[in-house]
Structure formats: structure tokens, C-alpha cells
Design brief:
Helices cover about 35% and strands about 20% of the residues. By secondary structure, it is of the alpha+beta class. A hairpin with a 6-residue loop joins strand 2 (about 45-55) and strand 3 (about 60-70). InterPro entries: Acyl_CoA_acyltransferase, Diverse_Substrate_AcTransf, GNAT_dom.
Length: about 140
């Protein structure tokens, strides 16, 4: 489903994760990330993958939802809302004060879904990313 999500987001060429990497990330003694699955009739139809953040302003952890994906033929069946609800429950149970994520600006169905849940677009912030060559170059830079 990770590859399906990447294709939907027009970024299939960026997927490099291996099954072994994913297994190590999720199932090590101290997981770096966590996942929840949505099932229907014994079939996995969606997932969310998330990790902990920390807010210096709030002084507590939060959740950053890296991915939320429901297969197209199962959208509208409440699976996405159930996955989001589970993350909100974890926040409430553990005293986390933020649940955050990013959505592509062209993804109108997802934007509408999130706004229906009461989410607010943080349009006063820009997201930045370093990968590949620029990341390696910065790591080598001195001074």
C-alpha cells in the first residue's frame, strides 16, 4: 500500500523502503514509528503510519501522521475516520496535545475529509525538506 500511496501522490519514483527496513522500524524494541491497519472482511484496506514529535511550546509529545491511506474502492466506508480517531484516542490517553500531518495542496478529497474532522490548515508555515545530494552536501559542509 505504500507504493499505491506514492503512485496516488505522483511520487512512485521516490519509494525506496524495503520490507526489512519497515519491519525493523516498526517491530524493534523501541520502535521509531508505529502503524495501524484498517480491515474489512479480513482484508487490509488501509493504514496509517505515525511517529512521536515534541512541542517546545506545549512541553509534551504529539503525533505526526506520516501517511494515511485507504484503498480507493474502500474510501467512504469510515476506515480513514476510524484510523484518525485511533490516533486522537492515543493523544487523549497519553496526554499528547497535537496531531499533525501534511496534505498535498491538490488533494481536494483529502483536504475536505480533514476539514470535516475539524482540522485547520497551517497555511502560515512552509514545509522544507533536504534529501539525497543536498542532504549529503550539507552534512559534508564545514564552517
Amino acid at each position: 500500500m505504500i507504493k499505491e500511496l506514492a503512485a496516488y501522490e505522483k511520487a512512485a519514483h521516490e519509494v525506496r523502503v524495503t520490507e526489512e527496513q519497515l519491519h525493523d522500524t516498526l517491530f524493534r524494541e523501541h520502535p521509531a514509528a508505529f502503524a495501524h491497519l484498517a480491515e474489512q472482511d479480513g482484508e487490509v484496506v488501509g493504514f496509517t503510519l505515525w511517529f512521536l514529535t515534541f512541542s517546545t511550546w506545549r512541553g509534551v509529545h504529539g503525533i505526526y501522521m506520516e501517511d494515511l491511506y485507504v484503498r480507493p474502492q474502500h474510501r467512504g466506508g469510515g476506515h480513514g475516520a476510524a484510523l484518525m480517531r485511533r490516533l486522537a484516542e492515543i493523544c487523549a490517553e497519553r496526554g499528547y496535545q497535537r496531531l499533525e500531518w501534511a496534505v498535498l495542496d491538490w488533494n481536494e478529497p483529502s483536504i475536505a475529509f480533514y476539514e470535516k474532522l475539524g482540522a485547520v490548515n497551517q497555511d502560515d508555515w512552509y514545509r522544507y525538506r533536504l534529501t539525497d545530494g543536498p542532504l549529503r552536501d550539507l552534512a559534508k559542509r564545514r564552517g
